[in-house]
Write a structure and sequence with these properties.
Elements: H1 14-25, H2 30-61, H3 68-96, H4 103-137, H5 148-162, H6 164-201
Protein backbone atom coordinates (compact mmCIF):
# COMPACT_ATOMS: atom_id res chain seq x y z
CA UNK A 1 0.00 0.00 0.00
CA UNK A 2 2.86 2.36 0.80
CA UNK A 3 4.35 1.88 -2.64
CA UNK A 4 1.02 2.61 -4.28
CA UNK A 5 0.78 5.87 -2.37
CA UNK A 6 4.08 7.10 -3.80
CA UNK A 7 3.80 8.95 -7.10
CA UNK A 8 6.20 7.37 -9.61
CA UNK A 9 9.30 9.33 -10.47
CA UNK A 10 9.09 12.00 -7.79
CA UNK A 11 9.23 10.21 -4.44
CA UNK A 12 6.25 12.12 -3.07
CA UNK A 13 3.44 10.33 -1.34
CA UNK A 14 -0.09 11.08 -2.43
CA UNK A 15 -0.83 12.66 0.94
CA UNK A 16 2.19 14.95 0.56
CA UNK A 17 1.07 15.99 -2.92
CA UNK A 18 -2.42 16.84 -1.65
CA UNK A 19 -0.98 18.85 1.23
CA UNK A 20 1.40 20.76 -1.04
CA UNK A 21 -1.39 21.45 -3.54
CA UNK A 22 -3.54 22.87 -0.76
CA UNK A 23 -0.70 25.19 0.30
CA UNK A 24 0.01 26.24 -3.28
CA UNK A 25 -3.69 26.95 -3.81
CA UNK A 26 -3.31 29.94 -1.48
CA UNK A 27 -0.56 31.28 -3.76
CA UNK A 28 -2.80 31.36 -6.83
CA UNK A 29 -4.14 34.69 -8.16
CA UNK A 30 -7.34 35.78 -6.44
CA UNK A 31 -9.40 35.40 -9.60
CA UNK A 32 -8.32 31.76 -9.96
CA UNK A 33 -9.10 31.00 -6.32
CA UNK A 34 -12.49 32.69 -6.47
CA UNK A 35 -13.46 30.89 -9.67
CA UNK A 36 -12.48 27.55 -8.17
CA UNK A 37 -14.30 28.18 -4.88
CA UNK A 38 -17.36 30.07 -6.07
CA UNK A 39 -17.78 28.82 -9.63
CA UNK A 40 -19.93 25.86 -8.53
CA UNK A 41 -22.20 28.32 -6.73
CA UNK A 42 -22.85 30.13 -10.01
CA UNK A 43 -23.65 26.81 -11.65
CA UNK A 44 -25.99 26.06 -8.75
CA UNK A 45 -27.52 29.52 -9.09
CA UNK A 46 -28.26 28.82 -12.75
CA UNK A 47 -29.87 25.55 -11.68
CA UNK A 48 -32.05 27.45 -9.21
CA UNK A 49 -33.08 29.82 -11.99
CA UNK A 50 -33.89 26.84 -14.22
CA UNK A 51 -36.03 25.46 -11.41
CA UNK A 52 -37.97 28.70 -11.08
CA UNK A 53 -38.50 28.94 -14.85
CA UNK A 54 -39.66 25.34 -15.18
CA UNK A 55 -41.92 25.76 -12.16
CA UNK A 56 -43.49 28.82 -13.77
CA UNK A 57 -44.03 26.95 -17.06
CA UNK A 58 -45.70 24.01 -15.33
CA UNK A 59 -47.91 26.34 -13.31
CA UNK A 60 -49.11 28.03 -16.50
CA UNK A 61 -49.66 24.73 -18.26
CA UNK A 62 -51.70 23.32 -15.37
CA UNK A 63 -53.41 26.64 -14.55
CA UNK A 64 -52.07 26.59 -11.00
CA UNK A 65 -52.29 29.98 -9.31
CA UNK A 66 -52.18 28.91 -5.69
CA UNK A 67 -49.14 28.31 -3.44
CA UNK A 68 -46.78 30.37 -5.58
CA UNK A 69 -44.15 30.92 -2.88
CA UNK A 70 -44.33 27.47 -1.30
CA UNK A 71 -43.84 25.80 -4.68
CA UNK A 72 -41.13 28.19 -5.88
CA UNK A 73 -38.93 27.95 -2.79
CA UNK A 74 -38.00 24.25 -3.09
CA UNK A 75 -37.65 24.66 -6.85
CA UNK A 76 -34.87 27.17 -6.25
CA UNK A 77 -33.21 25.66 -3.19
CA UNK A 78 -33.07 21.97 -4.13
CA UNK A 79 -31.52 22.39 -7.61
CA UNK A 80 -28.97 24.83 -6.18
CA UNK A 81 -27.88 22.49 -3.40
CA UNK A 82 -27.92 19.40 -5.62
CA UNK A 83 -25.91 20.95 -8.46
CA UNK A 84 -23.41 22.56 -6.10
CA UNK A 85 -22.90 19.32 -4.16
CA UNK A 86 -22.65 17.20 -7.32
CA UNK A 87 -20.04 19.46 -8.88
CA UNK A 88 -17.93 19.54 -5.75
CA UNK A 89 -18.17 15.76 -5.33
CA UNK A 90 -17.49 14.90 -8.98
CA UNK A 91 -15.05 17.64 -10.06
CA UNK A 92 -13.64 19.98 -7.40
CA UNK A 93 -12.84 17.44 -4.68
CA UNK A 94 -11.29 14.82 -7.01
CA UNK A 95 -9.10 17.50 -8.57
CA UNK A 96 -7.87 18.78 -5.21
CA UNK A 97 -7.32 15.19 -4.09
CA UNK A 98 -5.29 14.42 -7.24
CA UNK A 99 -7.79 11.69 -8.13
CA UNK A 100 -8.81 13.15 -11.49
CA UNK A 101 -6.10 13.73 -14.08
CA UNK A 102 -8.04 13.52 -17.35
CA UNK A 103 -9.10 16.83 -18.97
CA UNK A 104 -11.79 15.28 -21.16
CA UNK A 105 -13.20 13.40 -18.15
CA UNK A 106 -13.31 16.62 -16.15
CA UNK A 107 -15.12 18.53 -18.89
CA UNK A 108 -17.53 15.65 -19.49
CA UNK A 109 -18.40 15.59 -15.81
CA UNK A 110 -18.88 19.34 -15.78
CA UNK A 111 -21.14 19.23 -18.84
CA UNK A 112 -23.23 16.37 -17.45
CA UNK A 113 -23.67 18.07 -14.10
CA UNK A 114 -24.65 21.28 -15.87
CA UNK A 115 -27.22 19.60 -18.09
CA UNK A 116 -28.59 16.92 -15.76
CA UNK A 117 -28.18 18.49 -12.33
CA UNK A 118 -28.70 22.06 -13.44
CA UNK A 119 -31.31 21.55 -16.15
CA UNK A 120 -33.10 18.22 -16.39
CA UNK A 121 -33.39 17.70 -12.63
CA UNK A 122 -35.17 21.03 -11.96
CA UNK A 123 -37.58 20.32 -14.82
CA UNK A 124 -38.43 16.85 -13.55
CA UNK A 125 -38.64 18.11 -9.98
CA UNK A 126 -41.22 20.72 -10.93
CA UNK A 127 -43.53 18.13 -12.49
CA UNK A 128 -44.76 16.24 -9.39
CA UNK A 129 -44.90 19.47 -7.38
CA UNK A 130 -47.27 21.13 -9.83
CA UNK A 131 -49.24 18.01 -10.69
CA UNK A 132 -49.88 17.64 -6.97
CA UNK A 133 -51.04 21.26 -6.74
CA UNK A 134 -53.24 20.83 -9.81
CA UNK A 135 -54.86 17.78 -8.22
CA UNK A 136 -55.30 19.52 -4.88
CA UNK A 137 -56.90 22.66 -6.28
CA UNK A 138 -58.56 21.01 -9.32
CA UNK A 139 -57.06 23.51 -11.73
CA UNK A 140 -56.62 21.10 -14.65
CA UNK A 141 -58.15 17.78 -15.72
CA UNK A 142 -55.90 14.95 -14.60
CA UNK A 143 -55.79 11.45 -16.10
CA UNK A 144 -57.29 8.32 -14.63
CA UNK A 145 -55.05 5.62 -13.26
CA UNK A 146 -53.07 3.99 -16.03
CA UNK A 147 -52.72 7.12 -18.12
CA UNK A 148 -50.56 9.10 -15.76
CA UNK A 149 -47.22 8.44 -17.43
CA UNK A 150 -48.53 9.47 -20.84
CA UNK A 151 -50.03 12.59 -19.28
CA UNK A 152 -46.74 13.52 -17.61
CA UNK A 153 -44.88 13.02 -20.89
CA UNK A 154 -47.39 15.13 -22.82
CA UNK A 155 -47.15 17.92 -20.25
CA UNK A 156 -43.36 17.81 -20.03
CA UNK A 157 -42.51 17.59 -23.74
CA UNK A 158 -43.38 21.21 -24.67
CA UNK A 159 -41.68 22.48 -21.52
CA UNK A 160 -38.51 20.60 -22.42
CA UNK A 161 -38.61 22.21 -25.85
CA UNK A 162 -38.91 25.66 -24.31
CA UNK A 163 -36.09 24.88 -21.89
CA UNK A 164 -33.64 23.70 -24.55
CA UNK A 165 -31.73 26.97 -24.49
CA UNK A 166 -31.34 26.68 -20.71
CA UNK A 167 -30.04 23.11 -21.04
CA UNK A 168 -27.52 24.17 -23.69
CA UNK A 169 -26.33 27.11 -21.59
CA UNK A 170 -25.99 24.92 -18.51
CA UNK A 171 -24.00 22.36 -20.47
CA UNK A 172 -21.77 25.08 -21.89
CA UNK A 173 -21.20 26.72 -18.52
CA UNK A 174 -20.50 23.37 -16.85
CA UNK A 175 -17.95 22.56 -19.55
CA UNK A 176 -16.31 25.98 -19.32
CA UNK A 177 -16.17 25.90 -15.52
CA UNK A 178 -14.68 22.42 -15.39
CA UNK A 179 -12.09 23.28 -18.06
CA UNK A 180 -11.01 26.32 -16.04
CA UNK A 181 -10.84 24.21 -12.91
CA UNK A 182 -8.64 21.69 -14.70
CA UNK A 183 -6.34 24.53 -15.75
CA UNK A 184 -6.10 25.55 -12.11
CA UNK A 185 -5.36 21.95 -11.15
CA UNK A 186 -2.61 21.75 -13.80
CA UNK A 187 -1.12 24.97 -12.48
CA UNK A 188 -1.18 23.59 -8.94
CA UNK A 189 0.53 20.38 -10.02
CA UNK A 190 3.28 22.32 -11.80
CA UNK A 191 3.79 24.54 -8.75
CA UNK A 192 3.87 21.52 -6.46
CA UNK A 193 6.47 19.54 -8.38
CA UNK A 194 8.53 22.64 -9.14
CA UNK A 195 8.80 23.42 -5.43
CA UNK A 196 9.62 19.77 -4.72
CA UNK A 197 12.45 19.80 -7.28
CA UNK A 198 13.83 22.96 -5.69
CA UNK A 199 13.79 21.25 -2.29
CA UNK A 200 15.68 18.28 -3.73
CA UNK A 201 18.33 20.59 -5.20
CA UNK A 202 18.77 22.29 -1.85
Amino acid sequence: NTQKDVAPGNGLTRAAIIEMMAKNFERLPDIEKKLFLYGPMYLGGNAALAGLISNSLYRRTLNVKQAAISSSLPMAVLPFITTFALYNAAVSSPLMSADLNCPSCVMMRGALIGVVGGGVYPILLALPVNVGLAARYSTAPLPEKGGQIRFWVDVTRPILRRMRAVLVLQGFFGTYLSSRHFQTYTQLVEMTFASHREELKD
